[in-house]
Every structure is written in structure tokens, then in C-alpha cells.
Amino acid sequence: MAKAKAQKAKTEVKEVVSEPKVESSKEPAPAKIRRTNIIEIPIPSLSQQSGNLLVCGQNDVGQLGLNTDDVMEKTRPSLVSELSNISDVKAGGMHSLVLTKGGEIWSFGCNDEGALGRDTEEEGSETKPKKIELPGKAVKISAGDSHSACLLDDGRVYAWGAFRDSHGSMGLTTEGNKKSPVHVVPEVVAVDIASGNDHLVILTKNGHVYTIGCGEQGQLGRVSPRTLTGESRRGKTTLLNPGCIPKKAGKFIANAIWATPFCTFLRENKSNNVYGFGLNNYCQLGVKKGGKEFEHFPLMTKFSDVKALAGGQHHTIILTNDNKVYAIGRKDYGRLGLGSVESDIKELAHVKGLTDIHQITCGEASSFAITNNGKVYVWGMGSSSQLGTGDEDDVESPKLLASAQVKDKNILSVSSGGQHSLFLVEAPGSTAAKSVAIKETVPVNAQNEDPPITTIPEPVKAPRGNSKEKKESAKVVKAGNKKKALSVVKDKESTTDVNGNSEKDEPMDVDVAVTKVARKRKAIHQ
Could you tell me which residues the RCC repeats occupy (predicted)? Predict the structure, then answer.
């Protein structure tokens, strides 16, 4: 009986539900239009500026593109006469990239983990500029400690080499190191790239930001601390597969990206607010430090009116829309350009003496600024001659670079690596006539511009001895196809972890021998 009643109830309910609805005479309310921040950023064209390459700093593994048997160091910018028609330059930790006006990329320096993107089986071939084989023309390049990347004119991003974390090499992808270029984000069309020491940042045409690589300091902006070591159930898969930066329930829509050695910054399209994540032990993110040294997800910074941004391991500088420069972070070695200051800077401070600035860039403990008329100012650590001033003195306030090769010439761009710097300088007619074009038959245009400046890293303070002593201490030992550079360093600071953390600074009374093995992460001293 109960079963029959239940069946009847179900039938009745079914009948009620199936009854036709009465049509309403009222017009339906219009659907709510969801407003979204939709943008489409165009793929950049290859810069038409063209110039010659000047180099300075250490050449122990051929990162200056000069013969290591003849040249171990350049204290002032010197011409690499074999290269011309250059559109841009980028210096990695111990390697260099050159982008030509024809969209080709040439590389030289250390290739232990594939950062050159080409075969270097022939003895000595890593120190000589050679072309990388690519499936198209490149419009942008970037370089980290052990990896390199480029953006092609159709929006594809190719990378090669390897990322590293505190345990050693992570590989470039889940398959390991890549000694030739591989397509890293096939599903997107990119418009910009930026490299930190061991991470790569990609901006797509729709404003989405992807990150890949080491995330130990939070620089990926999308990975929880538990996953950062790669020891979770998924291993390094999350780190080495490009992932999009989230914003609450959606994704960030950005119109600009920047990468510093251990940080990432993006500028939100709608508000133009700058967000940052990564290492913040000296307030270099521009956010309140609090009790955390790492920020693993995007936080809005105090930076406003930002035109460009650059940074080193422990400092950040910004260029505002009124062409002024501001700095924040660690004070040591003069990297902030604020002169002699008693303590680290936790709020943006104006760098005086700089006007009409067009570009900025940073090394790990040094900074550069280029004016609209092509003059370059340098400041910060100079222990490896990376500032190009002719000596190894640190510079506490912006100093105009005025050596013979750059005086009265138009500097277009600068990039600095571990202990070397690359300058792109406008080529005068006499120089252009003597230069040998890189597979290009068009002579160098004397009125074209040179590429932007990049900075130099600072983990180790080099000794202040005479040039003969320095050259003897920097002898290169060849081990198979790998080069290990041995340099003697008198360290003013106590050894610290990879983030530069220690309880206090204590001068050391003994010389410390530091062996640089290719792209091995250098310990930061504080």
C-alpha cells in the first residue's frame, strides 16, 4: 500500500512539473553585461637602431667575445670589431647575446648548461660569436644565469639552457637541459619576455603573465611554498610548465612586465598599479616587509607613475613618467646612487643628479641610466671593472661615463651580467667601414641608435690588487669542454645563504678562493 502511494505521489509531481508555463506579457529583463578588461597588445617590431658592441669587465670564459688568451679583463668599454649592425644586447651570468638588425641571435661565453643555444664541441668555439639557429626572426632577447630566451616576430617564445635552484640544475623543461632553442609556450601569442637569474616571465597579447623556472624566493607568483622545492607529489612539473599568474578568481591583465634576479613585477592594465612578488629581504619589492622575506603571490607595491623598472639582487630602481629615477633597497657598494647613507632604504628615494633619463637598468649591485641624448651614468659595485670607469672603485652617486670609446657618442643600450657589461653604441662612419657585418651586407648606419643598458651582479666583492695580480688569479682552467674560472676574492662580508641573509656583517681577514663553475649559482655575501 505504501509503495503504491509513493508511486502515485511521483506521478503527480511529474505531472505538475510537466505543465506548460503561462507566457508573461512583460518583456524579459536585459541580460547583465559583464565588463571585462579585454586588451590586445601588438607584437613588437624589431628595433631599427643599429650600432657597434663595446664590452668591459671580466673575460675569463670569453663572455666579452674577445680571445681569452690575449684579454682577461677590460677596465673600460672596448670595441668588438667583428660584430656590427647590432640591434640589441643582453648579458647573462657568464654569457652574452647579440641581436642583429636582421633578427639573428649570436652568442658567446660559458656554455656548460646550454645557455649559448648552439653546438660548442669544437675547442674554443664558445668564446667566438656564432649564430643560433632559429625557426624565425627574433625581435627581443633575454638572458639569465644559465638560460636564454627570445621572442620571434610571430609571437612564439623560444628558450634554451637551464634554470637552477639551491639543489643545482633544474633543467629548462621537465625533460632536462636544452642546448638548442625549444618552444616553451605553444598555446599563447607573446609580446614580451623578461629573465631573472633563474626564471622567465612572458607577457601575452591578451595581457596574461606566465612564469617558469625556480620559485624558491617566490618569483613565480603562482606557487605555494610547499611546492617550491620540487619535492611535492608533482615534483618540478608545476615549476617547469609555464603557468599563468592568478588574481583572485581570474587572471591578471597586465600591460608591462619586469624581472630582477629574484623578483617579478607587472603593471596592471586597468589601474596601472605595479604588483610585485619574490625576494623582499631589503624591501626591494616596494611592499611592507613585515615578518616575511618572500612574497609568493602578487602584492600591490608603493611604486606609482612607473615608466620603467629595473633591479639587482637587493635593490630596485624605477623611472617615472617625468623621467626621474628613484631607488629602494640595500645601501652597500653605492648601488642606490644616493651617496653615503647610514642605513638601507625602505621607501623610494629620489636619485639626484639625473635628469632627462630615457632608460634604466641594473646589475646585481650596480645601476645604469641613459639620457635622451645618449649619455650613460653608472653607479654601484665596480670590483670586476663592470662599470667601465677604468678602475675597480665602487661609485656611490651617478657618474658620467666618459672614456674615449663613449665620449661624444650616442649610447643606445647597456646590459650587465655576472662580472661583465655590454654597451651598444652608435657607430660612426669610420668605425662602420672597418667593422665586419654579421652575415649582413648593409653597412652600419651611423645615425642609428644603440641598445639599452643592463646591469651587473654582485654576489662577490673582488680584490683590489694590481692588474697583473688579478690576471694571474683569474687563470682559466680548461676541463674538457667546460671552463672553470678561478678568482681570488678578499671578502668584506660574511658568507650568507642564496638570499643574502645573515645576522651581521663581519669582515674576513683571509683571502677566499671562489671557483666559478659555469652557471653554478654564486653565493651572495652580506
Answer: 51-102, 103-154, 155-206, 272-322, 323-373, 374-427
